[in-house]
Write a structure and sequence with these properties.
Two copies of one chain form a homodimer. The longest helix of chain A has 31 residues, at 248-278. In chain A, helix 8 (195-208) links the parallel strand 6 (184-187) and strand 7. Chain A has twelve helices and seven strands. The model of chain A is unreliable at 1-6 and 82-92 (pLDDT under 50). Chain A has helices spanning 3-6, 11-22, 55-68, 86-93, 118-132, 147-154, 169-175, 195-208, 229-245, 248-278, 280-291, 296-316; strands at 43-49, 73-78, 105-110, 137-143, 158-163, 184-187, 220-222. Chain A is of the alpha/beta class. The two termini of chain A are 29 Å apart. At the A-B interface, helix 10, helix 11 and helix 12 of A face helix 10, helix 11 and helix 12 of B.
């Protein structure tokens, strides 16, 4: 066995791999280990919440707490909506500056520049890459509305939903079905007016949600700057113990793998499509479609057959 | 030749075809004629604008104007973001109630329930269907932010961007690049405060945009309830004449066909994927992925090969 098979990649190597994953290159995933279904040593935390919920401050404190236990932590900030706001994200990251010198904290944003379904490919790939690099805890951060929150929840072991008093996003999140996927609710800015009311409203909605007797009941934790992080950490640990003991972690990681499989399959087909379209025959077909010599539907069928034929001849080689 | 080949479908038949198109069934597209590149008799109007821009009232007046010229009009309301808001859309449509008894006005919403890339398949399919049914003017209506506005613009001959004073969405639209794809700007609610300022701001941004000497320069029209519709109609007619004379319509329809081709190709592959996944071998593969017996990447490759093999055997039959 050569050492390169098992060596933990350097931060620079990891950054390079993540750039390729973020660009939607499926080939880079070929050599990454997948997250074991019963592996309790690695844990994926999804942290979602609307703008102004205080996610960056919260994650900063949580990372500090995890570091105190000697855990290596990777933070992946998922931001699909604004391909051009690298600056804004970076600004956000500056609050986490105290971890910058720490080799055991890896911080990175994932954008998946506008590709359809790109996040469902990039997120599991990035998780595998950071786990392969020895980061035991992975924090997936995203804005708590829309598809990215759903994508983050799909690949997390424990989902935290942050809200702050006066945001009104608890209601909005409820509409989007995000409340149903949260395992721990965090009310940040607990020192502000209305924090207790927000917590009470959340608790009421949790009581009302349909739930079997043995199902996990999400706790509501109040935080303010560093305060309440111990309670949050404790809530995460309780959910983790519950999830591992009751088969939830197993079921989620199975679903995680199947989602990953589907997005990989689509990425391979998309790659084939791009190759077929840019081949000589594909370019001819494209011109015929553009000028109306051939119907788009017929041309689509032709391209499917071209792709299959190309694959056959590749197999024959 | 049987009469069914050339018969114009009834409204009920058309509604049925559109339901199948909206559900992402590519087979229904097989028998639809495509929009001819040089066909100046059919014209596709894209109407986009943020919530509160007054799109429904505007379109209602525009349809009335087109009907006065004896034109048959289809209105396709594109609403991808809210699969559950059929009610809201319907409520919106109620304002167009005066056209309900008119057999020469066809109104329908397209949702493309959450499918990836669904709109880029549904919109061109729906355009073909209503043109085949003899509607010469097609109005594609959508909310002027995000992907649906881009999809609507991609399949339109003339793009109208609506805004109203005080919405601040002119700036927002500019950010999203929507301003760059508008051929006519409409400032609605011209009787409200700030309408002239909004029009002036738009005109300033149009002046600043890079443009070659012979390029179309989008006019800004002020409307209020029925007022200004004659000017809007005139602006559309001028853009249509320009576009047909200067090759823009031709270029756009070429791009329209190529986009349609790509989305059809993806839909065919997706259909194959679903069939492969739900086959006996696909189900086995899925279970192996879920339990970790096989790596998702390897399983994705296996599924691609299964699909290709299934296609080969289909060809052999």
């Amino acid at each position: 066995m050569t050492s390169s098979c098992s060596a933990i990649p350097s931060r620079r190597e990891l950054a390079r791999v993540l750039t390729r994953i973020d660009a939607g290159d499926p080939d880079v995933l070929r050599h990454l280990p997948s997250l074991a279904i019963d592996d309790a040593d690695n844990w994926i935390l999804g942290v979602t919440g609307g703008p102004g919920a205080g996610k960056s401050t919260f994650i900063d404190s949580l990372v500090t707490r995890l570091r105190r236990d000697g855990q290596r932590v990777a933070v992946l900030a998922v931001d699909p909506s604004s391909p051009r706001t690298g600056g804004a994200l970076l600004g956000d990251r500056i609050r986490m500056v105290r971890h910058v010198g720490d080799a055991d904290v890896f911080i990175r944003s994932l954008g998946s520049r506008g590709q359809l379904g790109g996040l469902s490919l990039a997120i599991p790939g990035a998780i595998r890459a950071v786990i392969a690099a020895g980061y035991r805890w992975v924090v997936l951060e995203t804005v708590g509305v829309g598809q990215s929150a759903v994508d983050v929840a799909r690949f997390s072991d424990t989902v935290l939903l942050l809200t702050a008093p006066g945001l009104g996003d608890a209601v909005q999140a409820g509409k989007a079905g995000i409340n149903e996927i949260a395992d721990v609710f965090v009310v940040s800015k607990a020192d502000h007016d209305g924090a207790r009311e927000t917590a009470r409203d959340l608790e009421a909605s949790i009581r009302l949600a349909p739930r079997a007797p043995h199902d996990w009941r999400p706790p509501v934790v109040l935080t303010s700057l560093g305060d309440g992080i111990a309670e949050t950490y404790e809530a995460i640990a309780r959910h983790r113990a519950y999830s591992l003991a009751c088969g939830q972690a197993r079921a989620r990681r199975r679903a995680h793998r199947v989602s990953h499989w589907r997005s990989l399959y689509m990425a391979l087909l998309m790659g084939d499509l791009e190759r077929a379209v840019s081949s000589r025959a594909g370019t001819d077909l494209r011109d015929q479609v553009a000028t109306g010599q051939i119907d788009p539907f017929q041309a689509a069928r032709d391209l499917v057959h071209m792709r299959a034929a190309a694959e056959e001849s590749e197999d024959a080689r």
